[in-house]
Amino acid sequence: MVNKGNDTSVDTNVRKADDNGYSKSQTDLTKEFPDQIVAEKATGVNVTAIKTQDEMFGSLLDIKA
C-alpha cells in the first residue's frame, strides 16, 4: 500500500487468489490494532462530552423553568 502523504485518501489493495481461491490478507495488524484502540478512546471521549452537554442543557432548562 502506498500512501503519498495524504492521510484522507483511501488506498485500494489488490489481492491475487491462488488456484484454490485462497487469498492472503493485506491487513497490517501491527498498525490496525493501535488505530482501533485510538478510535475506541476517541468514541468514548465524544460520548462523555455529549453526556456532559446534555446534563448542562438539562440544568439550564431547570434554572429557566
TrEMBL record:
<feature type="region of interest" description="Disordered">
    <location>
        <begin position="1"/>
        <end position="28"/>
    </location>
</feature>
<dbReference type="Pfam" id="PF06429">
    <property type="entry name" value="Flg_bbr_C"/>
</dbReference>
<feature type="domain" description="Flagellar basal-body/hook protein C-terminal">
    <location>
        <begin position="24"/>
        <end position="62"/>
    </location>
</feature>
<feature type="compositionally biased region" description="Polar residues">
    <location>
        <begin position="1"/>
        <end position="12"/>
    </location>
</feature>
<dbReference type="InterPro" id="IPR010930">
    <property type="entry name" value="Flg_bb/hook_C_dom"/>
</dbReference>
<protein>
    <recommendedName>
        <fullName>Flagellar basal-body/hook protein C-terminal domain-containing protein</fullName>
    </recommendedName>
</protein>
<comment type="similarity">
    <text>Belongs to the flagella basal body rod proteins family.</text>
</comment>
